[in-house]
């Protein structure tokens, strides 16, 4: 299963569009599903994602065009995934508070946004993912200003997380692989 994880667009208030270097990867990515952390700002950005694949999304703190859940849960081939924008977490992106939310939701993986900084963190037995900002726009805490998104590949009990970042007009891809523990109750870094 191939999954696009993306969010924090802020189009057109902070950015004009998704970087052109990303467009072919996103448009022709042959995704089974898209998971989005919100902050589209305009509905047309969500419509673009929905034209590519089934899109599961949460409302961001700048999405005034729709009332939608702040948290969603999906099951992808046995991985329980939670999705939240993350505006309720203070300080922004705090790993221990995100971990607590993941425990409360009963998920193996929690995907959040709001910080505009891509990150992959294994906290205890839960994987915390943040795709960063698809446009690399600024956030209330600064952000990385590096456009980014993630692609997940799920095969059985293995999950690879590829982070795509646009650095100096070139795409940099970093991939990490994780697996479920033998009892299925924890996420582990694959060896």
TrEMBL record:
Calcineurin-like phosphoesterase domain span: 1-155
Cofactor dependence is on: a divalent metal cation
SUPFAM superfamilies per UniProt: Metallo-dependent phosphatases
Q: Please list the GO terms describing molecular function.
A: hydrolase activity; metal ion binding
Keywords, A to Z, come to: Metal-binding
Q: What is its EC number?
A: 3.1.4.-
Kindly indicate where the leader peptide sits in this chain.
none
One Pfam short name: Metallophos_2
What top-level class of enzyme does the UniProt entry assign? hydrolase
- Family (UniProt): Belongs to the metallophosphoesterase superfamily. YfcE family.
What protein name applies here? Answer: Phosphoesterase
